[in-house]
C-alpha cells in the first residue's frame, strides 16, 4: 500500500510542477507531440488510483466500478478543459491517467 501512495504523491507533485512551468512560458509542443514525463506521471497516478480503489472496495465490485467510472469522468472533463486551454502537458497527464486506470502497475519483485 505504501508504494501506491508514494506513486500518487509523486504523480501529483510532478503534475503541479509541470503545471507551474507551463503557465510561466508558452508551450512549445504541438498537439501531435506527447510529453513523456507528463504522460508517465499520469500513468503512474492512474495506476495508483486503480490499486487504491481495488484495495478499498475489491476489484470487480459495484463500488469499485463506480469509483473507477467517476475517475474516468473526472479525467475526461480535465482532458476537454486542457484541450480548450491548449495545455498539452495537462492533456498528456490525463491521457496517461486514463491508461493507468485501464491497466495495473507491474508487480514489484
TrEMBL record:
<feature type="signal peptide">
    <location>
        <begin position="1"/>
        <end position="24"/>
    </location>
</feature>
<protein>
    <submittedName>
        <fullName>Uncharacterized protein</fullName>
    </submittedName>
</protein>
<keyword id="KW-0732">Signal</keyword>
Amino acid at each position: 500500500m505504501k508504494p501506491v501512495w508514494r506513486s500518487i504523491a509523486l504523480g501529483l507533485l510532478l503534475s503541479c510542477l509541470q503545471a507551474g512551468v507551463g503557465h510561466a512560458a508558452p508551450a512549445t509542443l504541438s498537439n501531435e507531440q506527447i510529453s513523456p514525463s507528463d504522460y508517465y506521471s499520469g500513468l503512474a497516478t492512474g495506476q495508483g488510483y486503480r490499486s487504491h480503489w481495488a484495495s478499498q472496495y475489491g476489484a470487480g465490485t459495484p463500488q469499485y466500478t463506480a469509483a473507477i467510472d467517476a475517475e474516468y469522468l473526472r479525467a475526461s472533463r480535465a482532458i476537454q478543459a486542457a484541450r480548450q486551454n491548449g495545455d498539452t502537458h495537462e492533456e498528456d497527464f490525463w491521457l496517461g491517467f486514463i491508461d493507468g486506470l485501464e491497466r495495473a502497475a507491474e508487480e514489484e519483485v
